[in-house]
Design brief:
By secondary structure, the protein is mainly alpha-helical. Among the domains are: 89 residues; 108 residues, Tetratricopeptide repeat domain (Serine Threonine Protein Phosphatase 5, Tetratricopeptide repeat), CATH 1.25.40; 102 residues, Serine Threonine Protein Phosphatase 5, Tetratricopeptide repeat, CATH 1.25.40.10; 103 residues, no CATH class. The protein contains 35 helices and 2 strands. Strand 1 and strand 2 form a beta hairpin. Helix 5 packs antiparallel against helix 6, helix 9 packs antiparallel against helix 10 and helix 25 packs across helix 26.
């Protein structure tokens, strides 16, 4: 009977294929037209969309239009516009993943690596866990390298090689990381570590040999590096199979002799006999009499199934004991259920209140399968959808910090949950954290504007974020300054929190970018205002300053004012508020670089700042930034002197006052600082 059913299924499949071959759909016709008559293909695709705009075929037709404009008709502008419309219409779908990939590829080829990086990052969010997402992660590292952001590039290459060990670019990615650590960053220890990893994991390949050669050239003893055996080579050459959550795993090498079930079972039973240190139970005692792995499985498979049932019943000690022992029995062997077991073990630790151990196990689960983090977020979304907002927040809190680039999304979702709970302060903090980690996320920016306006009654700040959300913030220095302040604030907060170093560095980096944007906008505005002041003033005095108005700079006008030119002094007075903001954001760039341990870069920027603005040394912000830089360079006495100098100029300078309190707690007599 089973054979007959199988026969019918095959027959029906053959008939269906014959029918499909004989009658093509309108979408297929449009695809064929695109090859020979692109102009007519556009009309055919539009007809498919008009027939049923919400159908899967309509989505594919929109992709066809974009592809035809871009690839067949050579109209890149219209192609890009069509791809961008797809991204907006179908966010976080396979279709938007394809469109974002096309956009990323376009900008990468155009050498606009920042835009390419952003679009590749969107691909990862659209289609997580897919081959395309993996390729995008590698491409992001490549973008950072092209941008000469070598720290980010090396770290991403290194992470990619270890989290995607079977990817075709894994070994090359490890070599790229090692090369950058060695030649660009001078981090010999990190380079050695990466070369050793490639040499050990891919020893038979050309990449492995290249790594060995590099280590030899560096004078490293390579005799101790473990090499893969022939059976392991055969094993890694087997095609990957899909695990329960879609991550690739190695198949068992066919040339490894299998133990008889009896001897293996006895060995596993013996290994399993011990009580869990954390959960206090013996895994074997929890197994029903007569239950074992069976001839097609193992003891750890049986324990895994029993653990799942215990976890569903909220028997956390029993579940944790079984997950823990199953993982111990598996050891270093490939196992499809490893990621799920670590995930279950983490939830078991949460259930008994051991949060630190839970976090450790969540991290191990994600190391085995990156999709686990999405599963954790979805768990929060499910609770949110069921109006269990506190449960949603707990799920999101569990996921925080495990995959740093996901934290912005998590904080955003936490903000939505706190909104439902009417906890305004935590709602505000969550959206602020989301923006500090990803200022370009306009959903987070818009929600931050709303909570500030409607619930915190802070119309001034709300207007700035609303301007950014409407896409008009790039030309407004006040918006850029506000974003810089927010990112800098949370850069410091993340730095004080456990395991948030990457988030801190990211926020400081965004702060620096926003402050530099403000510097650029202010510089243009000041020069325009100075030009107008000279044009409206005494012509003879103006000519004493400069013949060509296009050459006007703050430095030129400042030097003329110092030389006694009254028109120059008047012009500087007119831009005094702008100049104060300019000095603040310029000093803030220095502080960001100090916070990111880039003292040399901070010194370069400070020198350039002072050179372009001779009056900078009159500002408290300048002396505060200089003081922080000197302290970072180990010059405490002079650094402390500069901090005090800042307070002499502005007794209410908050940054300087706070720093002085840390350095000299006894200085209680200092005036209280205000925002």
């Amino acid at each position: 009977m089973r054979f007959f059913r199988c026969y019918l299924e095959i027959a029906f499949a053959i008939i269906a294929l014959v029918l499909l071959a004989g009658c093509s759909s309108p979408l297929q016709e449009a695809n064929r037209l695109a090859m020979s008559d692109p102009g007519s293909a556009i009309g055919a695709y539009e007809a498919v969309i008009a027939t049923n705009p919400d159908s899967p075929e309509a989505k594919q037709a929109k992709l066809g239009i974009a592809r035809t404009y871009y690839e067949k008709m050579g109209n890149a502008e219209k192609g890009i516009e069509a791809y961008e419309e797809i991204v907006k219409a179908y966010p976080k779908t396979e279709v938007s993943g394809t469109a974002n990939w096309a956009l990323a590829d376009h900008y990468f080829k155009a050498k606009n690596y920042e835009k390419a990086r952003d679009y590749f990052a969107q691909v990862v969010q659209d289609v997580p866990g897919t081959e395309r997402a993996s390729n995008a992660q590698y491409a992001i590292a490549k973008c950072y390298e092209e941008l000469k952001k070598f720290d980010e590039a090396a770290n991403l290459y290194d992470e990619f090689s270890k989290t995607h060990p079977q990817h075709s670019r894994a070994a090359r990615s490890g070599l790229d990381a090692a090369r950058i650590y060695e030649t660009e960053l001078g981090k010999t220890d990190k380079a050695t570590e990466s070369y050793k990893y490639v040499a050990s994991e891919y020893s038979i390949s050309s990449s492995g040999r290249e790594a060995m050669e590099a280590l030899t050239n560096m004078g490293v003893d390579v005799s101790e590096i473990a090499k893969m055996s022939e059976s392991e080579v055969e094993e890694t050459q087997q095609p990957p199979t899909a695990t329960q959550f879609g991550a690739p795993t190695r198949r068992r090498a066919t040339n490894v002799p299998r133990d008889t079930f009896g001897s293996r079972q006895r060995e596993e039973d013996q290994q399993a006999r011990s009580a869990s240190k954390d959960f206090g139970l013996d895994a074997v005692d929890l197994m029903p009499v007569g239950v074992s792995g069976g001839p097609q499985g193992t003891m750890y498979d049986a324990m895994y199934m029993m653990a799942n049932m215990s976890l569903q019943s909220k028997q956390y000690k029993e579940a944790g004991t079984l997950y823990e022992k199953a993982l111990q029995l598996v050891g270093n062997k490939p196992w499809d259920n490893a990621a799920n077991s670590y995930f279950g073990l983490a939830k078991s630790y949460k259930g008994i209140g051991m949060d630190d151990k839970a976090t450790e196990m969540f991290r191990k689960a994600i190391e085995k399968d990156r999709k686990i983090i999405d599963r954790m977020i979805i768990s929060g979304e499910t609770a949110y959808g069921e109006d269990d907002y506190e449960g949603a927040i707990k799920s999101y809190e569990d996921a925080l910090g495990l995959v740093p680039y996901k934290d912005s999304e998590i904080y955003y979702r936490m903000g939505l949950a706190y909104l439902k709970l009417k906890d305004v302060d935590k709602e505000l903090e969550s959206f602020e954290r989301a923006v500090a980690l990803k200022p370009r996320d306009l959903d987070s920016v818009q929600h931050l504007a709303e909570v500030l306006y409607y619930r915190k009654k802070n119309a001034r700040r709300a207007d700035l974020y609303d301007t950014e959300a409407r896409g008009q913030g790039n030309t407004d220095y006040k918006v850029q300054k506000e974003l810089g302040n927010l990112c800098y604030k949370y850069g410091g907060i993340f730095a004080e929190e456990t395991d948030r170093a990457k988030q801190s560095d990211s926020s400081y980096l965004y702060a620096e970018t926003k402050y530099k944007n403000a510097v650029r906008i202010l510089k243009r505005k000041m020069e325009a205002d100075l030009k107008k002041a000279l044009e409206d003033g005494d012509e003879s005095q103006a000519k004493q300053i400069v013949d060509n108005p296009s050459m006007i700079t703050v430095k030129l006008i400042s030097e003329a004012a110092d030389a006694g030119n009254e028109l120059a002094s008047s012009a500087l007075a007119k831009i005094a508020p702008l100049l104060a903001d300019y000095r603040f954001v310029s000093s803030a760039v220095v502080l960001c670089r100090v916070a990111r341990n880039k003292a040399d870069k901070a010194q370069e920027y400070l020198d350039e700042f002072k050179s372009n603005d001779p009056g900078a040394a009159d500002s408290a912000d300048f002396h505060y930034a200089l003081g922080e830089l000197l302290l970072a360079q180990g010059n405490k006495d002079v650094g402390l002197s500069e901090i005090k100098k800042a307070l002499e100029i502005d007794p209410k300078h908050k940054g300087a006052a706070d720093k002085l309190k840390k350095l000299e707690p006894q200085q209680a007599s200092q005036p209280e600082a205000t925002e």
